[in-house]
Structure formats: structure tokens, C-alpha cells
Amino acid sequence: MTVVPTLTLKSGEKMPIIGLGTWQSKPGEVGQALKIALNNGYRHFDCAHVYMNQDEIGQVLEEAIAQGLVNREELFITSKIWNTFHSYEKAKEGVDIILQQLKLKYIDLLLIHSPMGYQEGEEMFPWTEDGSRMHFSDVDYLDTWKGLEEAVQAGKVKSIGLSNFNSQQIQRVIDHSHIQPAVLQVELHPYFQQTKLVNFCKEKGIEVTAYSPLGSMTAPFRKEGQANLLEDPVILEIAKHHNKSPAQVAIRWSIQRGLIVIPKSTNEHRIKENFDVFGFELSKDEMAKMAGIDRNWRIFDLAARNGDHKYFPYNDEF
Ligand SMILES: NC(=O)c1ccc[n+]([C@@H]2O[C@H](COP(=O)([O-])OP(=O)(O)OC[C@H]3O[C@@H](n4cnc5c(N)ncnc54)[C@H](OP(=O)(O)O)[C@@H]3O)[C@@H](O)[C@H]2O)c1
What we know:
This protein has about 325 residues and is α/β, with parallel strands linked by helices. It has a single domain, classed as NADP-dependent oxidoreductase domain (TIM Barrel, Alpha-Beta Barrel), CATH 3.20.20. It is built from 11 helices and 12 strands. The strands form 3 sheets. The protein has an 8-stranded parallel beta sheet. About 45% of the residues are buried. The mean pLDDT is about 95. It comes from Plectus sambesii. GO terms for molecular function: oxidoreductase activity.
């Protein structure tokens, strides 16, 4: 079975460079996807409280460990503190909910899902009455970070990091933290290459996880008729040359940029395909061609929903 290379994080923990994404993997399907992935060598799973499927993931992990299919130490489980859990007390509560849902004693990597807090309460998505945007909270994400640091000290989390933060927000966390962020998870694919942000993180010793590495094929953020990078002529040509699929080329490209990559699938064939990316290499020339197809196109453009949030991350250059 393929042994996936790892990157060593600031925390000293080792993170497998490929994992299975689980956003939009429906309850009733996600467990089966996880079983297929585990049986085919995946050990890293990207989860989040807001994906509403962690109970089923926890069930499968518990069974896999009990059956001796994997040891807990071989697994690398990421989860994320949702926007309605940003105050210090709520963040700590969020950690406990995640541990309970995933049926784990510790999480390998816990991220703040977004710098933007939403009104705290029962609703994960507290839409305004006219449905135009969220009710915000102006809780400072540094308070959330303190909650995460405490979870590390309590042994509930091994490494902590950020998601959807811009470079200035990351710097602010670095400047005010006891434990430095180990990982940044952001949208990143051949049409949105994020070169400046990746360079910034690498300089700071922060590893970068590429989410939506295939260009995230479904609504709500992707609009009908928008370009599909899996049909890009440059990617198709490279795929043909290596006798690989366009998705495998996109994933391989991320890996060769030194990134961690978390493609989502619930389809057996595609789960296997996305993991079969270690037997070929893109040449220097092919990597240069891939660099040339960047469109600086962010699919997760949250401006309509969150654009006037105090901590909206996408107004700054990167
Ligand atoms: N931190 C954040 O805010 C954030 C935001 C977005 C995503 N994420 C994480 O990143 C993961 C991946 O991102 P994503 O789910 O947005 O998109 P993605 O992985 O880029 O694309 C997933 C889509 O591509 C399809 N697909 C998978 N493998 C394929 C292949 N080999 N060929 C053709 N199509 C393929 C999937 O359908 P099938 O399932 O039918 O195969 C699904 O529709 C998420 O699941 C989540 O864990 C994090």
C-alpha cells in the first residue's frame, strides 16, 4: 500500500501530504467514503464541525481502530472551529463538541475555520431576516486562538492553525500567540495559485493545505457555466502525456509545489484515483505551463454574504 509522504509541522507533528476532503459528503455516504479511503491507504481526513457529518466519520474511525485496521497514531484528523464558536469560552466548547462527534481523545490539527465570527447561538448560519447576509459577531479571532492554545495545553489537540485568513491576519496571530500557527488552509488550485500567500507562509514556517484542489465542482459557491479546470487544455495535454486523469495532474501539481492537498470524493473510483499520484512527476516545463494557467480566480467569493464583516479577509492583496 502507498505510504504517503509527510511534512513536519512547527509543532513537530507529521502531516500526510494528501487527505480526503469531507465537505458536502452527505451523512449516509461519508462513512462509506471513509471506509474505502482507509482501505486504500488514506490516513489523513479533513473534517469540520459545520460539515454536519462528523458523527458518522467518528463512528467509522472508532470501528477501524477497534478492528485493528489502523492505529490512532497513524491517523491524521483535521477539524475546524466554526464561526459561531469564536469567543474564548465558545471555542473551548467547540473543541469538546468536535472531540465528542469524532469519538477521539485528541485532534491532530484544529483550525479556526474563518477569521469572521457569526452571531453565537443555535444557528450555524444565522442569516439576516432578508436572507442577504449573516448576523456577524465582532469577536476577535485572537480570542478564538487563545481557546485553541488552551486545547493544546490540555492535550486535546496536537497542532493548531488557520483557514481563510489573509497574510496580515496570519501575522497578527503570529505576533500575539504563545503557540504559532502550524498550518494555513485556503482555496488553492491551478486557477487560483495563491503564490504570494504560499511564499509568505513558507517564510514563516507555516505549511499550506490546498482546499478545493480540483476547483470544487458543486454549488453553492461555484456558479453554473463557470470554467472547469479539469477541462483546461494545458491540463488535458499534460494528463494525456502521463496517461493520467486531469484530477491527478491537478493534485500532483499541488504536491510538487510543497503543499498538502485534500480532494473530496465519495465515489470509489475517484477516491482511489485521487490517491494514485505518487508514480509520476511533472517536469519543470510542465510545472511552468501550469503556472501559466493561473486566473487568480477565487471560487469561494464570500463578499455578498460577508463583505462588510470587520474581519473579511479578501479586501487585502493576499
Ligand atoms: N477551510 C475551508 O473553508 C474549506 C472550504 C472548502 C473545502 N474545504 C475542504 O477541502 C475539501 C476539498 O474541496 P471541495 O470539496 O470544495 O472540492 P474539490 O476537492 O476540489 O472537488 C470536489 C468535487 O470534485 C469531484 N471529484 C472528486 N474527484 C474527482 C476526479 N478524480 N475527477 C473528477 N471529479 C472529481 C467530487 O465529486 P464526487 O464526490 O462525486 O467524486 C466533488 O464534486 C473539502 O471537502 C473540505 O474538506 C475547506
